[in-house]
User: Fold this.
Amino acid sequence: MNRLTVIATVAALCCSAVSFAQVKEDFVPSPNNQPGKQYPMVNSERCVRVQVKAPEAQSVKLDIGGVKYELNKDAEGVWTGESAPQDEGFHYYQLNIDGADVPDPSSLYYYGASRWGSGVDVPAPDQDFYALKNVPQGKVSEVYYWSEVNQAMRHCFIYTPAGYDTDLDKRYPVLYLQHGGGENEYGWPQQGRTAQIMDNLIAEGKAVPFIIVMDNGTWTMPRPAAPGPRPEGPRPDGQRHRGGRHQGPQGRPQGGFGLPDGWADGFMNTLVKDIIPMVDANYRTIADKDHRAMAGLSMGGMQTKAIALPHSEIFGSLGIFSGGTITVEDADNTPGFRENNRLVFISFGSKELENRNPAFGGDPKVETDKLAESGHNAHFYVSPGTAHEWQSWRRSLYQYAQLLFKW
Amino acid sequence: MNRLTVIATVAALCCSAVSFAQVKEDFVPSPNNQPGKQYPMVNSERCVRVQVKAPEAQSVKLDIGGVKYELNKDAEGVWTGESAPQDEGFHYYQLNIDGADVPDPSSLYYYGASRWGSGVDVPAPDQDFYALKNVPQGKVSEVYYWSEVNQAMRHCFIYTPAGYDTDLDKRYPVLYLQHGGGENEYGWPQQGRTAQIMDNLIAEGKAVPFIIVMDNGTWTMPRPAAPGPRPEGPRPDGQRHRGGRHQGPQGRPQGGFGLPDGWADGFMNTLVKDIIPMVDANYRTIADKDHRAMAGLSMGGMQTKAIALPHSEIFGSLGIFSGGTITVEDADNTPGFRENNRLVFISFGSKELENRNPAFGGDPKVETDKLAESGHNAHFYVSPGTAHEWQSWRRSLYQYAQLLFKW
Assistant:
């Protein structure tokens, strides 16, 4: 039993295993529940309580934050139980019913951990910044487009700010915003709450209006031929991302960090040759590097560094959320970067910094401060009390968006 | 055991219970699978095969089309089994694991039967009309707006055809298109494949380009106050429809067909006072009755009759898919309808007509033919081999869209 397991077990005892008397009974339904569903619930101690009817099951568990919590069965065959306290913000989770990992039938579904599955939002003191409010609303559009690089139809989401459809003479800067590993293009518009964050910021005058393109950074390979006896022609799908199914075996070793081979080069080609031209042709963009930025979380941050650092003539600003740093050496050794780049933004959750992986290089705050001291417009942000999770990235977007395109 | 159950049981024996030797082994993955997942699969006999790992389970069933099929467990605890032949097109389904009704962790999720759950598409000979193709693409936008009627933020999807974002002088007709009971505003853009149907029709010159607004016809009541100790301010949700949760007890008896009380009046107010003004203010519409239509499936068709028949000065065309008819008496007894209405479109699945519920009135084909003979532009369509399911409604939209706004 390692240290993390001990901590989790002690925390679980606090919330669940000892007795119901020790659980603070102020649970309220999660905002991520399906219509009409009372569970999952969250209490003021940030414990997550789930409930599922499984009359003939022998064992039902809640699997959240890497820990499994046993539920208890009542006389009607309804299983109920709760987790240890979770961090503020959004978490993926699942149920385990007699050994089967399944989504909770009561929650809405989100794509992460390489699956569509359950999610729960734990209240945060600052949740107002990503709340849906009666302010002028932008919108998120679901867009399919032909990719020459991939020889396939691809799929992305595009946020346009309030007024885009009525103020037809105005042109806008564009941020290309990427999800993390095991996630897809649904991450930022759904659990990332991109539209709500931006609408609220713009309504308060804290951000300039800009377009945000959220594409899929993993699926960058051509589809294989349709197998066997499937019907001719395009498949009748496309409502959802069709990632892994179409990647096919690549016959080459996997790259670092468990990323698919070609994750940066392949996406760079798609981004530069297909996505940006599609966006500039169909949206009223300001199509120059000063008004084009790239940012991403985790794997998407690494992709941002791999693509936007060497191509500062295309992306004049970059943001890396929980995905690495830009050092003075990176800046000085990359032709054109010092002249072209207008903004570097680096962020992490505080718990990531406490448990920092040395493989990611030096202390990111020290490195970013050095970059700023060297005369670069570089900013460092720490999300308090959060780990490698969406609350860190919602807050990072909130901070980054207030700096972007203000030149 | 009624006749339907006998048929289902015999069909189930054909596909599943006798032996694997009798199942045609040409299964291919469903287009509705999660990325990387091989199951569910469908064979050329339209049987659906599912697979789930549940090592400690005693019983796992596939629940589709109102019938439960037992799965078989292998030595690794993986359960596999298949259904009887299903109709062509899209079907909701779920798994039952030791008494727990849960989504299949391998499928994508759709809202129907009053839940987010699994869906599977069975190949159809005419599936090309709703396939994603490399033709000029419209897009579907997710839109939030303030509703005075509901005193709440509401949520809809709006399809705009290819060229809408670049041909800025052009104005468009609008179709208001409603889902059925137990469904929500995700139905038409997801399982309904509205964008693909329209993009393909427009690319072939078979339909004129128009805007389609897909809103929620069930959730029409103000939210109750937030319960107990929940945080102040709007909830940090909104990525998905929040239907039943917010309807609250209404304290009045339910109307016919199991519909919530107020389902038509409430939605009519929302539609006429909030949705149409929002659309006309934010989109380049042609804002008159000749260029505004309403249609819907099942409950949405009944709403269309309840709203658009008496308000032909607002909606100059109407479509009712599996939701009733417009009789000569309806037309003659509704002031203004004969003068204002440009198009009546009525449709059903052929299996609905075979098992017609007399409560819906006379034979809809006879009634529609009479309406046409009386001099009205009335059309009747039958979807061959389908029941009260999405394939009937995809085909209905395909037919209806080719008639609309061609005046």
In short: Chain A has a mean pLDDT of 87. Chain A touches chain B through 88 residues (CB under 8 Å). The CA atoms of residues 205 and 402 of chain A lie 9 Å apart. The two ends of chain A are 53 Å apart (CA to CA).
